[in-house]
Write a structure and sequence with these properties.
The complex is a heterodimer of chains A (about 200) and B (about 475). With about 200 residues, chain A is of the alpha+beta class. Chain A contains 6 helices and 4 strands. Chain B has one domain. The chains are: A alpha+beta (about 200), B mainly alpha (about 475).
């Protein structure tokens, strides 16, 4: 049995399937059986499997991008207005904190806060911040980059990026039992069931 | 249509004699996930074809020309160009607009067509997006070199705290350009890289050499195709497409503001933003076909870049070409309707009858007459005809920018300040140099990066669909 000190003998068990349909059915069966710590690996995104494995939860990436984009918009507009010396309260604030402020240019008698002219840059910064939050957020939520992962110890796993579909049941799952889980997986009709070493 | 069994898959992978895809198909029906992977990754892992040394040598020699032109420019200053007063914007701006425009097709294909659920874009998006990146790289050289001392260009262009308390003027379209182009280049790179991550994972798993494996593993960030990862990945990719769509429309709009915000007759027109964006897509699709048709032939990619791809691109070219021609017509109508004599002179007299009317007439030939054959299916099905038309369009779109920039500037309000303009040998050297730079990068990309997105193409396979039990 696994204790807090000694971890289980293996990372888990892996079953290989040929079609996404077989993997989908296997994921459904494993969940019905009560397995919770499981993952599927596939060469291309199959929407139904993604939804099933992530328990039909919405990806958090969209919220991260919304916050990132909003930050870009607010920062972009305030920065330009400040640099063009258009916001006295912000000028006061930055001169008190940094002893530094924007510079009010009079260009063709236009108002200092000529906000329509600040929109293009505000928009670009919204997109820039949004895009960076999408990419960084996606990698962070996925725990990438991760140079090492036990699944790579399985030789046949190298086909996960080509044409094969893998179901992994993790040994940390309370329902996991080396022998029982293996016979469960073999009952799903996989090509092969493999131990995943640490 | 047969779904190949896995046993036959291995033999198909080594056998190039696949059933040719029909006119409507975007992928040969004989392909499965393994044969697709084999074919695309074999270009990366295989030997460099002999012809590639030849074309690379040619384009790289033009990079040599670029270096010479840049060095001489830096030593002597922008006086070596044909610029004068009143034509203070010459080749540098023409080429900037031309190159940025070429890049736009890549973002249109990868982002807008993704949002519109056009699955044929899956085979060509990486290729087109690589073009975007390289075209932007060529484009940014021009305004930077136009500053004369590019190594201190950051001093004027980027807002940073400095001891003089001075900031760039955010009310200027030139400043908007800095943000639009740099954002465009950055976001395109991010989008391209995110799309590449799963394929880098595939390359890692296919690589035999341990060092290559490590390299691809690092570049793929340790991607392992987990369903949980794909879940976030798909959302991020969709949102990047959603962000890139307004971005690509904004970039050429902002570039058109460089002209339309000014008071000069021929520039000061409200039609400019949509007209520029359509022109950009038009030129971009032409360039995609110009590069893709020979590559498709050289690598025998007819099973993945099918006739349907070329026909669809030809249709987009025809439509955007007509929007551009509508822009030409609208300029004439504006000139007449405005009642402004300067505007009328610039558009309706100087363009068709002035000293540069050859440029204007060639423009009408290239961008209006030459695209008319695209109405016919036979032409859209012929790669050679498409290639020739694309070549003509690429010239036509360069001429369009010549007409807008030079023909508006050289005769403005006061006849006493009129002058003529011609590019010098250094203008041409720099321009040809960037073309060589673009193609050199393109060949490196084709050689070292899977130019067809394997993971995205596999989604189109018939077996990729899963019958769920109905709850979504």
């Amino acid at each position: 049995m696994a204790t807090a000190i000694s971890r289980p003998a293996t990372y888990g068990l892996m079953a290989e399937f040929i079609t996404p349909q077989a993997l989908y059915d296997a994921v459904k069966a494993a969940k019905a059986e009560g397995y919770e710590k499981l993952d599927a690996h596939m060469p291309y995104p199959v929407e139904d499997i993604c939804h099933e494995v992530s328990n039909h939860k919405r990806s958090k990436v969209s919220m991260i991008v919304f916050i990132g984009g909003l930050t870009g918009a607010v920062f972009g507009f305030l920065f330009q207005s400040w640099a063009m010396g258009a916001l006295p309260w912000l000028q006061d604030l930055t001169s008190q904190i940094f002893n530094y402020q924007g510079y009010p240019y009079n260009i063709g008698g236009r108002p200092y806060l000529s906000w329509p002219a600040f929109i293009p840059v505000t928009f670009e910064l919204t997109v820039l911040f949004g895009a960076f939050s999408a990419v960084i957020g996606m990698f962070a939520l996925n725990g990438l980059p991760s140079p090492y992962h036990p699944v790579f110890n399985v030789e046949r796993f190298s086909r996960h990026s080509v044409d094969r579909f893998f179901l992994v049941l993790e040994s940390e799952d309370p329902k996991f039992d080396q022998a029982e889980t293996r016979s469960f997986l073999e009952g799903l009709g996989p090509e092969e069931v493999m131990d995943v070493d640490w | 249509m047969s779904t190949p069994e896995t046993s036959s898959a291995a033999t198909v992978g080594t056998n190039p004699d696949l059933t040719p895809p029909s006119d409507r198909q975007i992928l040969s029906p004989d392909h499965d996930a393994e044969t697709l992977t084999n074919k695309v990754s074999s270009i990366v892992f295989g030997r460099t074809p002999l012809w590639m040394y030849g074309v690379f040598a040619l384009s790289f020699s033009l990079v040599g020309l670029l270096l010479i032109s840049v060095v001489y420019l830096v030593v002597k200053g922008t006086g070596i160009w044909g610029l004068n007063i009143p034509v203070a914007w010459g080749f540098a701006i023409i080429n900037l607009v031309w190159w940025i425009g070429i890049g736009h097709a890549g973002t249109l294909i990868s982002a807008i067509l993704l949002l519109l659920n056009q699955d044929w874009r899956n085979s060509i998006n990486r290729f087109a997006e690589a073009m975007t990146l390289f075209a932007v790289a060529c484009a940014v050289m021009f305004p930077l070199l136009h500053t004369g001392r590019p190594w201190i260009a950051a001093y004027w262009l980027l807002p940073y705290p400095n001891t003089m308390w001075l900031w760039p003027n955010f009310r200027s379209p030139l400043m908007w350009d800095v943000f639009a182009i740099s954002t465009y280049g950055t976001v395109s790179l991010l989008f391209w890289y995110v799309g590449l991550v799963p394929d880098l994972g595939t390359l890692r798993d296919r690589a035999k050499n341990i060092h290559l494996k490590r390299l691809f593993h690092s570049l793929a960030m340790g991607w392992r195709g987990s369903a949980k990862h794909w879940h976030n990945y798909e959302m991020a990719y969709l949102l990047l497409a959603g962000l890139s769509t307004p971005l690509v429309l904004s970039v050429h709009s902002v570039i058109s503001f460089d002209f339309s915000v000014a008071q000069l007759p021929g520039w000061h027109a409200t039609i400019f933003p949509p007209y520029f964006v359509a022109g950009a897509v038009f030129a971009g699709f032409a360039m995609v076909m110009l590069v893709m048709i020979p590559v498709r032939f050289a690598f025998g990619l007819h099973d993945m870049l099918t006739s349907r791809h070329l026909q669809n691109m030809a249709k987009v070219t025809l439509v955007t070409g007509f929007i551009v021609c509508y822009g030409y017509l609208a300029e004439f109508i504006f000139a007449y309707y405005s009642g402004n004599p300067y505007e009328r002179y610039a558009i309706a007299e100087n363009r068709p009858f002035g000293p540069y009317n050859w440029a204007w007439m060639m423009l009408i030939f290239c961008n209006f007459l030459a695209i008319q054959p695209l109405w016919f299916k036979k032409v859209r099905q012929s790669p050679v005809a498409l290639w020739v038309i694309s070549f003509i369009i690429s010239i036509g779109m360069w001429l369009e920018r010549f007409v807008i920039v030079v023909m508006s500037l050289h005769r403005d309000f006061l006849p006493s300040s009129w002058d003529r303009y011609a590019g010098t040998i250094w203008d041409w050297g720099l321009y040809l140099g960037t073309i060589g730079f673009f193609f050199s990068l393109m060949f490196l990309f084709i050689r070292f990066v899977p130019m067809i997105p394997m993971s995205e193409l596999k989604i189109l396979l018939p077996e990729a669909r899963v019958k769920g039990d109905g709850h979504h």
